[in-house]
Amino acid sequence: MSLVSGGARRLLGDSTAMVDARALFLATGWYKPLRERLAARVAAENPTRVLDVGCGTGYYLQGVLTRSPDVCALGMDLSPVAVARTVSGRDNIDGLVADVWSPLPVRDASADVILNVFAPRNASEFHRVLRKDGILVVVVPQATHLQELRAAGLALDVPPNKGDHLSETLSPAFELETRDLLSSSLRLDPAQASALIGMGPSAHHTDAEAVAQQLSGLQTVTAAFELLGYRRIPA
Fold first, then answer.
1. Which residues contact residue 154 at a Cβ distance below 8 angstroms, ignoring those fewer than 6 apart?
2. Contact 39/5 with Cβ under 8 angstroms?
3. How far is CA 86 from each of CA 27, 173, 212, rounded to the nearest angstrom?
4. N or C: which end of the chain has fewer CB within 10 A?
């Protein structure tokens, strides 16, 4: 079953190189605890239809389906390369290439859960697409996330109190229901650290030679997330 009600526009998003870097880094398993916590949070809703906005390679959505195999899923991203990677070999995931800032070609009240992992959010459209008691599950970085890479000038700054600001932005359409903090220290080799940089927005602001030089002395990198569950408030 598809949640799509219309055709998607062909837009530019993450490049093939960025998607490949994301797949390489996520395959290391460093973010597996986040994926498992996210999948458990979604499974608690007993959903039948899940929309992943900003699906990337489908890593987190696949974790949800492992925990909730009967879910019908839709992976949405701005990048056609990312959407193709998400749906590859999966008959229970449909794909949608769309801009989150435009009206989404998705039916009203068609999703039980919306996933939003390190991706932009459109509160009004998410409210429309979710069922009346649906939940929006968001992952944002804590202020300490990748602090070692930021100190080396290899990653973009993280605004302080990002979770609090998000709750203000989503109000009054959504009410914060759950908040989990996850943090760990990752011992990355240079290839893994390079992939971590290359998979995100920092890839647009660094060059390969500078990255290689600055990663040579890197020992550990902090990964710190907020996992936030927002209940939809009736209009």
1. 197, 202, 206, 211, 214, 215
2. no
3. 14, 29, 29
4. C
pLDDT in tens, the chain (235 residues): 334 444 444 445 789 999 999 999 999 999 999 999 999 999 999 999 999 999 999 999 999 999 999 999 999 999 999 999 999 989 899 999 999 999 999 999 999 999 999 999 999 999 999 999 999 999 999 999 999 888 888 888 888 888 899 999 999 999 999 999 999 999 988 888 889 988 976 554 455 455 556 665 667 899 999 999 999 999 8
Torsion of CA 146, 152, 201, 20, to 10 degrees: -80
State whether residue 209 is helix, strand or coil.
Answer: helix
Give the pair of three-digit tokens for residue 218. Answer: 């890197």
Start-end of H helices in the chain:
16-26, 32-43, 59-67, 80-87, 123-129, 147-151, 162-170, 190-198, 208-215
Structure tokens at 5: 């009600």
Report how far residue 114's alpha carbon sits from residue 101's, in angstroms, rounded to the nearest whole number. 15
Q: Among 40, 35, 106, 47, which Cα is nearest to 76's?
A: 106
- Pairing mode of beta strands 174-186, 49-53: unpaired
Written as one string, the DSSP assignment of 93-120 is EEEEE--TTSPPSB-TT-EEEEEEESS-
